[in-house]
Write a structure and sequence with these properties.
Shape: globular
Number of strands: 2
Oligomer: single chain
Radius of gyration: 24 Å
Length: 276
């Protein structure tokens, strides 16, 4: 087991403890508290299990010493703690990127760099849909101009190779491409950051479409309303139902697609009572 297998430091701590027990080393929260110079075993229990438990730099250094990690592994552990504790998207992306660099080429790393790059580039999911269309040709320079915004020939070529490596598309007998049932999964901690980053990119594209595309090619509408916050879950369920119904219509469509669309949904508070 290595630290690179984890993206959540508390999962790593619990796995380390189980590994120690399997090796015959009888650790308890009480004994760990003594080794770390803490008075309460309850404090150690919270460090291992409570996501909201703060971890001071001094305690983090002591825990790293206890784990026996050094060099890049120690730096990765510290970045992982910071990643788990960060609240802002930019801050979480920063630490996630640092974790990727520190892990190097470790095959044990749970954070799949290919999966990360798939969601970090807005056009890769779009390209996955586009290359499977019957008219998509090997004239990559021409195909690149069909994207909104336009891509470069290099982006299209590298994107296709990336999708092939991820096994998200395969070459078919006709020399074109076909989709697979594979999907990208990078662990829940990572997905939160990657999906948020991807969604931000798509929301920016939506803003661009509002300015640059005629209404006949897009559908953008808004609705401002008041509603009990305690009942907001019903709104979320209704939106998810709408999305599922749309997905079913897409699946049932027999005619091959000739356009890739992006569907975004937003619903968030712009004024709230809060704790008033």
């Amino acid at each position: 087991m290595t630290v690179y297998q984890f993206t959540n430091f508390q999962e790593y701590l619990r796995a380390w403890l189980e590994e120690q027990k399997s090796a015959g080393k009888k650790h308890s929260f009480e004994s760990l508290a003594r080794q770390l110079g803490m008075k309460s075993k309850g404090h150690i229990h919270r460090i291992f299990n409570d996501p909201s438990m703060p971890l001071t730099p001094r305690i983090m250094v002591k825990i790293a010493d206890l784990l026996g990690v050094g060099g890049d592994e120690r730096a990765y552990f510290e970045a992982m703690v910071a990643f788990n504790r960060a609240t802002g998207l930019d801050e979480r992306r920063l630490y996630l990127s640092r974790m990727g660099r520190l892990s190097g080429g470790s095959k044990a790393m749970k954070l799949d760099s290919s999966a990360c790059s798939y969601l970090s580039e807005w056009f890769l999911p779009v390209l996955r849909e586009a290359v499977c269309m019957p008219f998509f040709s090997k004239e990559m320079k021409i195909m690149a101009k069909l994207f909104h915004p336009q891509l470069t020939e290099t982006q299209v070529r590298r994107g296709i190779e990336h999708l092939l490596n991820l096994k998200l598309i395969v070459r078919n007998a006709q020399g074109g491409y076909a989709p697979t049932n594979a999907y990208v999964h990078a662990g829940s901690e990572i997905e939160t950051v990657l999906l948020s980053s991807f969604q931000q990119q798509m929301l920016k594209l939506g803003s661009t479409a509002l300015d640059e595309m005629p209404p006949s090619k897009r559908e953008i509408s808004t609705l401002t309303f008041s509603f009990p916050q305690s009942r907001f879950l019903t709104i979320k369920k209704a939106l998810r139902k709408l999305q599922n119904e749309l997905a079913l219509e897409i699946i049932k469509e027999a005619e091959p697609g000739d356009t890739v669309y992006q569907f975004n949904m937003q619903c968030f508070p712009v004024f709230e009572k809060g704790t008033l």
